[in-house]
Amino acid sequence: MSDQVSIKVVDAFDLDDELRSLLKPGEMMRDPEGRRHRLPRYFYEIPDHEAAVSIRLSHHFGLNEFILTDLKEAPRLLQFPRYVPCAVRVLAFYLEQFRREIGASVHIAVNGAYRSPSHKLSQTATPHMWATAADIYRIGTTILRGKESIEKYNGIAEDLSDDIHVLPYGHVTGLNADDHVHIDLGYITVIPREISEDRMEVPQENRPRFAFEERRRRERRNVPETEG
């Protein structure tokens, strides 16, 4: 990341039961075409609002811009610490290139970047759940509500990279956009260098795979957490 403030990387399987049930790490979801995609497992943990504002993912994009959600999000996920998939840094990189190309500020809508699988708009798998999609409602002073402006900026985004997908102008929810530019990179997952995946190699019959399973096992045996 471009900011010097460190940010903790977590394996969502190590979070508490409620968070894991809301973030659904590693679960499969179908997209509108019926294809299955595995949800992210590795997240950045954002301890408080001050950190969200101060940490920058690129020169012009702060972390807080990617977690703007309203009450459609699960209440627990609106509380700090908050969690966003690590692939958000890839999205920030491409948005920075997009901003440079157009030479104007880029404004992401509320609910327009990361949305958890528990968000009320998350009916099927979309790259928003991977933190690899952004809905842009304003560029510079231009509010994106007309066909001409949306098609103009869609074209600029598509010319940046074959990795970028946009929604054409239109009025069919999920297939078109008539009040924003939708940019997404597909279903990218990132394994940060801080993470070791070796525990996936351990036979699961003899060793709890996840931290909360170990806690449950201790509770069933009435074993203090400091033992063993």
Provide an overview of this structure.
There is one protein chain. With 228 residues, the chain is α+β, with helices and mostly antiparallel strands. It has two domains: 8-195; 198-228, no CATH class. It is built from five helices and ten strands; from the N terminus they run E-H-E-E-E-H-E-H-E-E-E-H-E-E-H. Strands 6, 7, 8, 9 and 10 form a five-stranded antiparallel beta sheet that branches. Strand 2 (28-30) and strand 3 form a beta hairpin. Helix 3 (88-102) packs across helix 4. The longest helix has 15 residues, at 88-102. It is globular, with a radius of gyration of 19 Å. It starts with 7 loop residues before the first strand and ends in a 7-residue tail after the last helix. The model is unreliable at 201-213 (pLDDT under 50).
Following the backbone from N to C, one meets helices and strands in this order, namely EHEEEHEHEEEHEEH
Estimate the global geometry from the Cα principal axes: globular
Number of domains: 2
Give the overall average pLDDT. Answer: 88
Largest beta-sheet characterization: 5 strands, antiparallel
- Rg of Cα set: 19 Å
How many DSSP H or I helices?
A: 5
End-to-end Cα distance: 38 Å
Low-confidence stretches: 201-213
In total, the number of strands is 10
* Helical percentage: 10-25%
Give the helix/strand class. Answer: alpha+beta
β-strand percent reads: 15-25%
